[in-house]
Amino acid sequence: MDRVKTGIEGLDKALNGGIPYRNVVLVSGGAGTGKSTLCLQYLVNGAKLYGEKGLYISTEQSREELLKAAEGFGWDLEELERQKLLRIAYFDVVGTDHFLEKIYKQYTDFNPRRVVLDSLTTFTDSLLVSSARDDTAFSMVQVAETVSPIPKTEKIVAKTLLYQLMKKLRLFDATIILTSELLEESKGLSADEISEFICDGVIEMHYLGISGADSRTLRVRKMRYCNHNKSYIPYEMTSQKGIIVHEEESMDVLMK
Ligand SMILES: Nc1ncnc2c1ncn2[C@@H]1O[C@H](COP(=O)(O)OP(=O)(O)OP(=O)(O)O)[C@@H](O)[C@H]1O
Ligand SMILES: [Mg+2]
Between 232 and which of 41, 142, 182, 217 could a Cys-Cys bridge form, CB atoms 3.0 to 4.6 Å apart? Predict the structure, then answer.
């Protein structure tokens, strides 16, 4: 099994070498836990350390916001873009039609080995809103006829949208990270409570903000085709290196 290194040393160790090639991995966590930073670092390391092209599809932060965030960690995204090792594609999900086709076009145009979609929550939420508003978006996912007369509950629509997205992503010759918002008290592993089952892997990120300075921990909750560290692992966010994962300090404690 080929591994795709994130270049975040402790995380690669926790994954026994990296993310299995072509896995679709969900990075799930609350506000400010570092999901977008992890995604950026995955692509920046891919470009700088391994010469691999990365595509960042953003539905939340604009291109300028991402450049600014990256600058705080000393990453010059524009330089990587000039070297054709990185592409940032921002989609304003409100009012964007044919979203899946547009993602696919970005992929075929650029042909990256690493892809990030940040965030899945914005993506599904916005499609749910438009599918509730009119039937066009709903028929776009080709379920209107097939599920009738089953009511178009949000869950069914969300599930269908996610399956459609996943089907598209699985065509990519790339290893993919998706992000999802997650409230600390949530019982599921993603905002929609479906993606964790569809994705090949789930990495949860927590920020408790108790007992001292930085109580950040992450956990590889699931990773298909891979034995991995299953404990809570402390991590830091630093201006010098971005996310640093202290795999050697893994904790076998129950936090939920
Ligand atoms: N230059 C920096 N050095 C150290 N830590 C930083 C730096 N810039 C941001 N941070 C930390 O990272 C957090 C933001 O990280 P990030 O945007 O990756 O989180 P996120 O999980 O994507 O958040 P959101 O839910 O808002 O999308 C900030 O709240 C701050 O704690
Ligand atoms: Mg973010």
Answer: 217
144 — pLDDT class (breaks 50, 70, 90): very low
HSE, CB side, 13 Å, CA atoms: give it for residue 154. Answer: 11
Q: How far apart are CA 96 and CA 129, in angstroms?
A: 12
The answer to whether the peptide bond before residue 112 is cis (omega within 30 degrees of 0) is no
> Which ligand 1 atom is the nearest neighbour of the CA of 30?
25
Q: Is 119 exposed, middle or buried (0-12, 13-18, 19+ CB in 10 A)?
A: buried
- pLDDT confidence tier of residue 192, bands split at 50, 70 and 90: confident
Q: Which CATH architecture fits 3-249? A: 3-Layer(aba) Sandwich (3.40)
For 179, the 3-state DSSP assignment is strand
Question: Three-state DSSP class for 226?
Answer: coil
Determine whether the shortest distance from the Cβ of 61 to ligand 1 is under 6 A: no
Pure H helices in 97-173:
99-110, 120-133, 135-140, 144-147, 154-169
- Predicted structure pTM score: 0.90
Query: What residue spans define the domains of the chain?
Result: 3-249
Report the distance separating Cα 42 and Cα 80, nearest Å: 13
- Quick one: tokens of 97? 């039609």
The preferred substitution site among 8, 36, 37 for testing ligand 1, maximizing ligand atoms within 8 Å of CB, is: 37
Ligand 2 centroid from CA 61, angstroms? 7
